[in-house]
Write a structure and sequence with these properties.
The chain contains three helices and ten strands; from the N terminus they run E-E-E-E-E-E-H-E-E-E-H-E-H. The chain is mostly beta strands and about 180 residues long. The chain has one domain. It is globular, with a radius of gyration of 19 Å. The mean pLDDT is about 85.
């Protein structure tokens, strides 16, 4: 189960980690409208339903563009990676969370409820043979960014301005120069 993009190779003193796929649940993605927007139409906060992301490698930004985002000025972005918390659901979330969980499990049958991320690849120890792994992680990542001046979203620039760059190399490289062996 690998994505349609290149692998990420991370060399360490203990071997090489090859990441073929990283996917995660975006539990929250919001854009808050700016009060400075003089647009004649009332701009509402944009909040997406949870969705599953295939993280691009090799200098690609993760596009969060959505055709439901209104053109206008926004002064804050919130982006959260976390599991689908079936125990803390608000009214109406149960069905959308279950639909997403079913979709994820159609690709990753062993996906545990507490996981928010899957990492697929191989670890090749120094002077050893490659060993495959699929690791489910309970990762919580929260990005909040205020924009001053406000971020302007138009129909023409939405693909460029509504994107996030994530470099997962730092997640797997340790301070002593080794890489994390995800086969253990």
């Amino acid at each position: 189960m690998s994505s349609s993009h290149d692998s990420l190779l991370i060399e360490g003193t203990n071997g090489t980690l090859q990441i073929d796929d990283i996917r995660f649940i975006v539990a929250e993605f919001e854009l808050d409208p700016s009060e400075a927007d003089d647009n004649s139409t009332e701009l509402e906060e944009f909040e997406s339903e949870p969705f599953f992301v295939d993280l691009p490698f090799v200098d690609e930004a993760l596009s969060l563009a959505n055709n439901q985002i209104q053109a206008g000025l926004y002064d804050e972005l919130e982006f959260e990676v976390e599991n689908l918390d079936f125990e803390d659901e608000e009214e109406g979330e149960d069905e959308e969370h279950q639909t997403l969980a079913d979709s994820i499990r159609s690709e990753f049958a062993d996906w545990p409820n507490e996981a928010s991320m899957v990492i697929v690849g191989t670890f090749t120890p120094t002077d050893g043979d490659p060993q495959s792994f699929t690791v489910f992680a309970e990762a919580e990542i929260e990005i909040e960014r205020e924009f001053n001046p406000p971020l302007e979203v138009t129909e023409n620039n939405i693909q460029q301005v509504v994107s996030v760059r994530i470099n997962p190399t730092t997640w797997f490289k340790q301070s002593d120069g080794s890489v994390i062996d995800l086969t253990q």
